[in-house]
Amino acid sequence: MSSLVRKSLDSPDETRKFEAGAGQLQLVEATTGGVGRATFQPGWRWSEHVKPIAKTDSCQTAHVGYVLSGRMKVVMEDGEEMEYGPGDFASMAPGHDAWTLGDEPCVFLDWNGYSNYAKA
């Protein structure tokens, strides 16, 4: 196996669409796990557009990533909440809902939690 790998999120290994055209996840698989770029359209909300796919009450994926553009609000099951925007590093534990803020898509790069995200 080669010690160097190059893949592009512009030509992903897999693309997963969210409900109602609310966005998509572009995923590349590496030996260390999946890396993904999700585009959450204005009006996207996890509990409306991914919950029907995941079939859990809240997002049960841990995320570690970076906001490339747009804004997102995340609320944990215990009520803790935070907003993220361009240039923010984000770490989110399982057990949350999230939604896009404003009228610009939120683009989020995640190198931890997207291998099974929005997967039926």
TrEMBL record:
<protein>
    <submittedName>
        <fullName>Cupin domain protein</fullName>
    </submittedName>
</protein>
<feature type="compositionally biased region" description="Basic and acidic residues">
    <location>
        <begin position="7"/>
        <end position="19"/>
    </location>
</feature>
<dbReference type="InterPro" id="IPR014710">
    <property type="entry name" value="RmlC-like_jellyroll"/>
</dbReference>
<dbReference type="InterPro" id="IPR011051">
    <property type="entry name" value="RmlC_Cupin_sf"/>
</dbReference>
<dbReference type="Pfam" id="PF07883">
    <property type="entry name" value="Cupin_2"/>
</dbReference>
<feature type="domain" description="Cupin type-2">
    <location>
        <begin position="62"/>
        <end position="111"/>
    </location>
</feature>
<dbReference type="InterPro" id="IPR013096">
    <property type="entry name" value="Cupin_2"/>
</dbReference>
<feature type="region of interest" description="Disordered">
    <location>
        <begin position="1"/>
        <end position="20"/>
    </location>
</feature>
